[in-house]
Amino acid sequence: DIQMTQSPSSVSASVGDRVTITCRASQGISSGLAWYQQIPGKAPKLLIYAASSLQSGVPSRFSGSGSGTDFTLTISSLRPEDFATYYCQQTNSFPRTFGQGTRVEIK
Amino acid sequence: QVQLIESGGGVVQPGRSLRLSCAASGFPFNIYTMYWVRQAPVKGLEWVALMSSDGAQKNYADSVKGRFAISRDNSKNTLFLEMNSLIIEDTAVYYCAKDGPVVGRADAFDIWGQGTMVTVSS
To answer: Cβ distance A60 to A74 under 8 Å?
Structure first.
């Protein structure tokens, strides 16, 4: 199975900050990487697919990059509604493994 | 609007069975691969199973293989998860999710249900 490792596990940031989350795959996955946002008590929401494609309706302050084994999710200017947990997921092979999550907290 | 609604969760004793359902609406259910994903309390996301649009392909996580069975009824726009020989570690919120956003590309899970809670406890 492909292991997905996110860093950091949590980050404290302020409204307006730029936040970057990284995700590393244990083997190459080309551009098969998705990012999700989960607010406590809610279902995950798709933000980015195919490593860098923005899902319809998602604000442009979210962006994704990378290929192969190293990927990043960037929030260019943090807004109050962005405080949540973010997960990466590889979509290159089965099982569709997720990272352990990165919690973005209010500083 | 595009919607997935899970049902069938509850409290069940170890070793017993439970059947989850996921009712889909607002999109052509019969052309999309569908998934089950679970999340144990205060834990991360774990992919559980998938079924292709025509039901020909099924795939399971090792943790549920041989105990869980995924199925679908395209005439009723419904996805199912039959869970047998339940163990404590199966306690989780179970979500169904739709493949997307581009049909057939398997890029991501673009629509999720609200989840249904399964608690395995004696």
So the answer is: no
Q: Is B21 on the interface with A (CB under 8 A)?
A: no
Do A98 and B114 make contact, defined as CB atoms within 8 angstroms?
A: no
CB atoms within 10 A of CB A53: 16
Any B CB within 8 A of A49 CB: yes
Between CA A70 and CA A28 the distance in angstroms is: 9
pLDDT tens profile B14-64: 999 999 999 999 999 999 999 999 999 989 999 999 999 999 999 999 999
Nearest beta carbon to residue A50 from set B45, B47, B107:
B107
**pLDDT tens-digit readout, A49-105:** 999 999 999 999 999 999 999 999 999 999 999 999 999 999 999 899 999 999 999
A46 with B108: Cβ contact below 8 A: yes
